[in-house]
Design goal:
Length: 530
C-alpha cells in the first residue's frame, strides 16, 4: 500500500537549504565526541527578543536521540535538534513525511522509504539513506539498550538496507502494518555517531543545534542556518529548570521566561496559561499475583470505590477527564462505548465482604505506591485513593517514592516479597496506537504488566496484525475485555497539561507538546521584536 500523504505538516512549510552557510560554533567539537565548553556563549537569560527561554521541571538526563521517547529528553531533542523519517500529526493521527518523502509496503514484511534529498546534518555532512539505515540499526538492533527499542519495537530486530542514497528498505521479522508509525520514534543521526556508547550531545538535521550545556544550569541552542526547512523565528533557545511549579509560573509573570511547562492547575485562570491534552492517562495497577488483589472481586471493588469526578474536580483543578480505559480519544483502539466507572461504595463494600466470606484475606495490608512529582496533586490523590479503598473495608497504606524506586515497582523484573501493590501509574499515549499500550500493560509478560490471561494475550497478538477499521475494532474490544474479565487497572483520568506562555509569543500547544515542544512553532506576538 502506497503512502499518499501530502507533503504538508502542522509545522511551518519547509524551505530548500541555503548554500555555503557557515557551520555553527562548536559543531566540530561535538562531532569529534569532545565535551562542549561550559561557556554559554554570552547567553545570560535576559530578554532580548531573539532568545526563546523555556523553563522545564528538571534537567534532561541526556540528549541522546535514541532516548528521545523519554519525555525529559524528547521535549528538547525531538523536532528541534533531530528529526525522524516520518512524523505523526497529533491532531489527526495521520503520518506525514519528514526525512522520508514517501513509503510503501513492497512485500508482506518489507517497507520501502524514499529519502529526502538536499538535507544536511549540523556537522556539514549530507544526509543519505545510509544514515537512515545506520540510525535505525543503532537504535533498535544494537546493545545500547535504547528506550525506543523496548518501548516501540520490543524484542524484534529489523533488517535495514540503503539502496543508493535515496532509498531505504526495512524488513521486519513478521508483517507489521504500523512500521512507519514505529519509525516516527527513531531520530536520525549521522553514521559517524558512536555505536559503543550513548552520546550526551547529539547532531541531527533539525532547525536548532546545541550551542552549550552548562550542567545544572542551562542548555543553549542556536538556529542551524543550513536547515533544509523554513527557518524558525527565534535565533536562539535557552532551557533552564526549576522543580517548583510556583517558581516556573513566577518566571512567566516576571518576564524571565517565554514558556514554562507543567504548571499547577491553580494557575489555570491566568491569561498567560494554556491547557492542553497531554497524552497521559493515570490509573491504579493492581498486582493480581498477591492476595487479596488476586481475587477479581476485590479488584472490581477498588474500581467501584474510586471517586473519579471528585479527584478530577478537587485535586486536579478540573484539568482532566475521568477515564475508563488506558487510551484516550484520538488513539487507535480507543473504545467510545467504555464509560468511566461510577463510584458505588455499597456495591464495592459488598464485593469485599463476599470475598472475605470465601476466605480471601481482605484485611491484608495493600501498599499504594505513588511517585513524587508525577503530577501536581499526586500525594493528595494517593491519600484520597487510600481513603476510598479503606471505606470499602480494605487495609491500605501509602508509600510516596522517588523515580528510581517507583520504576522498580513499575517495570519487570518486579520486586518480590513486597506484598500486594496498588501502583499509581501515568501512561503516555504519544504513539497514537493501542498496540504500544497493550503490549506493555496487558500482556501476561508485558514489561509493565503484573499478570494477564492467555486469551487476552492471543487477542493482543491478533489485533497487532490487523490494519484499518479491523485493527481499531479489535483493540477496542480487548480494552473492554480487560475491564470485564481481568480488571488489572482501576483507571482514573485522562490528564491535561498546563503551559505558561508569555504575552510576547504565540504558540498553540497540542497533545504532543509534553513530549516534543517544537520551537519552530513558537512565533513572536504581533508587534514583538525578534
Amino acid at each position: 500500500m502506497k503512502s499518499s500523504v501530502s507533503p504538508t505538516r502542522r509545522a511551518s512549510p519547509r524551505r530548500p537549504p541555503t548554500k555555503g552557510a557557515m557551520l555553527l560554533a562548536g559543531i566540530v567539537l561535538m562531532s569529534s565526541g569532545c565535551a562542549v565548553a561550559n561557556s554559554a556563549g554570552g547567553d545570560t537569560g535576559r530578554a532580548d527578543g531573539r532568545t526563546l527561554r523555556v523553563v522545564l521541571t528538571q534537567e534532561p538526563p541526556t540528549l541522546e536521540p535514541c532516548e528521545a521517547s523519554l519525555t525529559g529528553t524528547g521535549v528538547v531533542v525531538r523536532s528541534n535538534i533531530t528529526e525522524p523519517l516520518v512524523e505523526r500529526d497529533p491532531t489527526s493521527g495521520g503520518l506525514n513525511p519528514l526525512l522520508a518523502t514517501g513509503w510503501e509496503q513492497t512485500a508482506p514484511r518489507t517497507w520501502t522509504f524514499d529519502i529526502r534529498t538536499g538535507v544536511t546534518f549540523q556537522n556539514g555532512a549530507p544526509f543519505t539513506a545510509e544514515d537512515a539505515a545506520f540510525s535505525i540499526d543503532r537504535a533498535v538492533n544494537s546493545d545500547l539498550a535504547c528506550n525506543v527499542e523496548g518501548y516501540v519495537f520490543g524484542n524484534d530486530d529489523l533488517r535495514v538496507k540503503a539502496v543508493g542514497d535515496t532509498r531505504l528498505t526495512v524488513t521486519t521479522e513478521k508483517p507489521d502494518p504500523i512500521l512507519p508509525l514505529r519509525l516516527s520514534f527513531v531520530e536520525v543521526v549521522p553514521r559517524t555517531t558512536d555505536t559503543e556508547a550513548k552520546v550526551r550531545i547529539p547532531i541531527g538535521t533539525g532547525p536548532y543545534a546545541v550551542r552549550s550545556w552548562q550542567p545544572g544550569a542551562a542548555i543553549s541552542l542556536s538556529r542551524f542556518d543550513d536547515y533544509w526547512g523554513k527557518a524558525p523565528d527565534f535565533a536562539r533557545a535557552r532551557y533552564v529548570w526549576r522543580s517548583d511549579a510556583s517558581v516556573r509560573a513566577a518566571m512567566i509573570d516576571k518576564a524571565e521566561a517565554e514558556i514554562a511547562v507543567a504548571l499547577d492547575p491553580m494557575e489555570a485562570g491566568k491569561d498567560t496559561t494554556a491547557a492542553y491534552p497531554n497524552n497521559e492517562t493515570t490509573a491504579l495497577r493492581l498486582d493480581g499475583r498477591e492476595a487479596p488483589l488476586d481475587d477479581i472481586r476485590v479488584r472490581r471493588a477498588i474500581d467501584l470505590a474510586v471517586d473519579r469526578e471528585g479527584i478530577v474536580g478537587a485535586l486536579l483543578g478540573g484539568l482532566a477527564q475521568p477515564a475508563g480505559q488506558l487510551v484516550p480519544p484520538g488513539v487507535v483502539g480507543h473504545n467510545d462505548a467504555i464509560r468511566p466507572t461510577r463510584q458505588n461504595v455499597d456495591e464495592a463494600r459488598a464485593l469485599v465482604q463476599e470475598a472475605a466470606a470465601d476466605g480471601v484475606p481482605t484485611d491484608r495490608q495493600i501498599t499504594l505506591v505513588a511517585r513524587n512529582g508525577m503530577f501536581s496533586g499526586v500525594s493528595e490523590t494517593a491519600e484520597a485513593l487510600q481513603y476510598q479503598m479503606q471505606q470499602i473495608g480494605l487495609n491500605v497504606k501509602v508509600r510516596m517514592a522517588d523515580t528510581a524506586t517507583h520504576l522498580q515497582y513499575q517495570l519487570r523484573p518486579l520486586p518480590e516479597d513486597v506484598g500486594p501493590i496498588a501502583l499509581l501509574i501515568m501512561h503516555g499515549n504519544q504513539a497514537g496506537d493501542a498496540a504500544f499500550t497493550t503490549s506493555q500493560y496487558l500482556l501476561s509478560d508485558g514489561p509493565q504488566s503484573t499478570f494477564g490471561t492467555k486469551e487476552l494475550d492471543g487477542r493482543v497478538a491478533e489485533a497487532g496484525a490487523l490494519s484499518g477499521r479491523k485493527r481499531q475494532q479489535a483493540f477496542a474490544d480487548l480494552l473492554a475485555d480487560q475491564n470485564r474479565n481481568v480488571v488489572q487497572y482501576a483507571h482514573l483520568a485522562h490528564m491535561r497539561g498546563l503551559l505558561g506562555l508569555s504575552r510576547s509569543i504565540r504558540y498553540q500547544p497540542d497533545s504532543a507538546t509534553g513530549d516534543e515542544l517544537r520551537l519552530s512553532e513558537v512565533h513572536p506576538a504581533k508587534g514583538a521584536k525578534h
